[in-house]
Amino acid sequence: MSVERPRGATGAVRTQQADGDITVVPDEALPISARAPSTGGSST
Question: Does residue 40 carry a pLDDT above 70?
Answer without folding.
Answer: no
